[in-house]
Amino acid sequence: MRTSSPAASLPLANITSTGLGLSSPPLASTTALAPAYPAPAASAKATAAATAKAEVGRATWTLLHTLAAQFPQKPSRQQQKDARTLVDVLTRIYPCGDCARHFAELVKREPPVVTSGPEFRRWLCSVHNRVNSRLGKPTFNCDLVESRWSPLGCSPEEDDAGELGAAAGCDLLGVGAKGPRRR
Ligand SMILES: Cc1cc2nc3c(=O)[nH]c(=O)nc-3n(C[C@H](O)[C@H](O)[C@H](O)COP(=O)(O)OP(=O)(O)OC[C@H]3O[C@@H](n4cnc5c(N)ncnc54)[C@H](O)[C@@H]3O)c2cc1C
Q1: Which of 47, 79, 102, 155 is the most exposed place for a label (fewest CB within 10 A)?
Q2: Domains of the chain, start order
Q3: Is 98 in the pocket of ligand 1 (CB under 6 A)?
């Protein structure tokens, strides 16, 4: 059985403008408030997107700093070109468009320094700090970058272990803990 109050039969415009005896605001002002109270589904989506953005960021920095930790003391021309290309590609296809655009501006102002492992690590630390500052995060002390990020499973002991070292990841770039290997 349906019960019908007088209000139920009124058109929406009448309900909001007459206020049914209550002091409801007119429809126009109710609508204007809407963006301040996003629907739960929209805010859940925004939270998920922010989490994914942060995760992709952490993963990308991990890749870049680990790669830099393993970058040779004396990189070949090809290795220097590869590092520049990697950075360049990120400025175009990094999965957060706004981040990619900002990163492209950064890289234009401070092009990658890939002439040696230590210089590449310093450069990367510096641009990461620029992103940190943009996001209002504390900057990282770049003197500590070599202790924060190390080559993959590549301790001097593993490096001495020859084949075992290579299997553990020391040989990814032909670079052991002691620097590039001669082939
Ligand atoms: C190229 C790039 C551009 C980005 N641009 C944006 C952007 O514009 N807007 C946005 O919201 N997010 C951006 N991000 C993501 C953002 O930088 C963070 O990755 C994300 O916010 C998660 O931050 P986090 O605090 O976990 O630490 P992260 O910044 O991801 O850092 C991971 C770890 O690296 C270490 N670390 C921090 N700073 C340095 C440093 N300078 N040198 C060496 N190690 C360091 C710390 O131990 C830290 O825990 C970008 C990511 C990348 C890779």
Answers
A1: 47
A2: 57-150 (1.20.120.310)
A3: yes
